[in-house]
Every structure is written in structure tokens, then in C-alpha cells.
């Protein structure tokens, strides 16, 4: 984990979400964005969650990525207690394949938004990229990195033979 001041807080409801959420972290590492990663749960550690959300901005974070599965209240509850943008990642639950997580995160009441990604690893990866895009608005070097990433991605798709 980079040892400079974290700009992105990556939180998840349980250690069991790490396999998914590490995809977000890998993107941040790839772009050299300083981050922190922690387990914080609205259900199991409500006081910690409140503290985390309340203190995030003061600690220099600019974006929060919150992943949770099942009754995934974490992203919305964190969003209710910070002005920072919150990106929600619906973790793929075993019982309902992540549809429960998706609906829990995406159906916020008007007034408290959570930017909801796709279910599972694609969502976690995109959460990392979305955080990079948000930070890149005011950071030209990061913007250049993002542009180069998109170009490499396009070239890779164009040059991939179909067998
Ligand atoms: N959805 C939440 C919250 C929350 O929203 O506060 N806290 C834990 N969880 C979720 O419970 C699932 C099962 O957790 P365990 O594997 O620890 O039983 C995880 O996907 C976690 O995100």
C-alpha cells in the first residue's frame, strides 16, 4: 500500500469481500493513487462506520469506495454521513448472486447519492477506475495516465484475434 497520504478510502463490510475489493485496490496501485483499505460494517461496527465517515474528509480522503454484499447498507450509510463522493460496489452474494447487494446499494432515496457499479469484480475494478477519473479532473498527470490506459485497452481489443 502506498505510504503517502491516502486519497481514496476502500472499505468493505467483511473480510470475505476482499477477493472482490482487491480489484479496486489493484487499479489504484496501477495508477499510483494512495489509498487505504479497511473492513468497516454498518451492521457489525456501526460506531466505527460513523467515525470513519465523519473523519474521512478531515483526514484528506477525496473519494470513498464501499463494497458490501447482501443487505448492503454500508455505502448508503457512509454516504449519509460524509460529503465525499461514495462509489458503491455490490459484492456477489452466494444466496442471491449479488442482486440483493445491487438493489440495496443502487436504490438510494433522492438526496443522498451512491455511484453504484456493476455486481462483483467488474464493479470493483470500475470503482477503482471511477475513483481515478474523479481525482483526474484536477490532476493532469493522472488524466494522462487514464488516457494512456484507455488507449492500451483499445489497442488490446483491436489486436486480439478471434482464434
Ligand atoms: N452488507 C454488509 C454490511 C453492511 O452493509 O454494513 N456489513 C457486512 N455486510 C456483508 O455481509 C456479507 C457476509 O459477510 P460474512 O462473510 O462476514 O458473513 C459480506 O458480503 C459483507 O459485505
TrEMBL record:
Catalytic activity: 5-carboxyamino-1-(5-phospho-D-ribosyl)imidazole + H(+) = 5-amino-1-(5-phospho-D-ribosyl)imidazole-4-carboxylate
Kinase keyword on record: no
One Gene Ontology term from the biological process aspect of the record: 'de novo' IMP biosynthetic process
EC number: 5.4.99.18
Pfam families for the chain: AIRC
Pathway assigned to this chain's UniProt record: Purine metabolism; IMP biosynthesis via de novo pathway; 5-amino-1-(5-phospho-D-ribosyl)imidazole-4-carboxylate from 5-amino-1-(5-phospho-D-ribosyl)imidazole (N5-CAIR route): step 2/2
Top EC group: isomerase
Positions annotated to bind substrate: 14, 17, 44
Sequence ranges assigned to domain PurE in this UniProt record: 6-157
InterPro entries: PurE_ClassI (IPR033747), PurE_dom (IPR000031), PurE_prokaryotes (IPR024694)
Gene Ontology molecular function terms on file: 5-(carboxyamino)imidazole ribonucleotide mutase activity
HAMAP family registered for this protein in UniProt: PurE_classI
Annotated NCBIfam families: purE (TIGR01162)
Entry function: Catalyzes the conversion of N5-carboxyaminoimidazole ribonucleotide (N5-CAIR) to 4-carboxy-5-aminoimidazole ribonucleotide (CAIR).
Family per record: Belongs to the AIR carboxylase family. Class I subfamily.
Protein name in UniProt: N5-carboxyaminoimidazole ribonucleotide mutase
Organism listed in the record: Luteitalea pratensis
Annotated gene: purE
Amino acid at each position: 500500500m502506498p505510504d503517502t497520504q491516502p486519497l481514496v478510502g476502500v472499505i468493505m463490510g467483511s473480510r470475505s469481500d476482499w477477493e472482490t475489493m482487491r480489484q479496486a485496490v489493484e487499479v489504484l496501485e496501477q495508477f499510483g493513487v494512495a489509498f487505504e483499505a479497511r473492513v468497516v460494517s454498518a451492521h457489525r461496527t456501526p460506531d466505527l462506520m460513523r467515525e470513519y465517515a465523519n473523519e474521512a474528509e478531515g483526514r484528506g480522503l477525496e473519494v470513498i469506495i464501499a463494497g458490501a454484499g447482501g443487505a448492503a447498507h454500508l455505502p448508503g450509510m457512509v454516504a449519509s454521513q460524509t460529503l465525499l463522493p461514495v462509489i458503491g460496489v455490490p459484492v456477489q452474494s452466494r444466496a442471491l448472486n449479488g442482486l440483493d447487494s445491487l438493489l440495496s446499494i443502487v436504490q438510494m432515496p433522492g438526496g443522498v447519492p451512491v455511484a453504484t457499479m456493476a455486481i462483483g469484480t467488474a464493479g470493483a475494478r470500475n470503482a477503482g477506475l471511477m475513483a481515478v477519473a474523479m481525482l483526474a479532473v484536477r490532476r493532469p498527470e493522472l488524466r494522462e495516465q487514464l488516457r494512456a490506459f484507455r488507449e492500451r485497452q483499445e489497442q488490446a481489443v483491436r489486436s486480439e484475434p478471434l482464434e
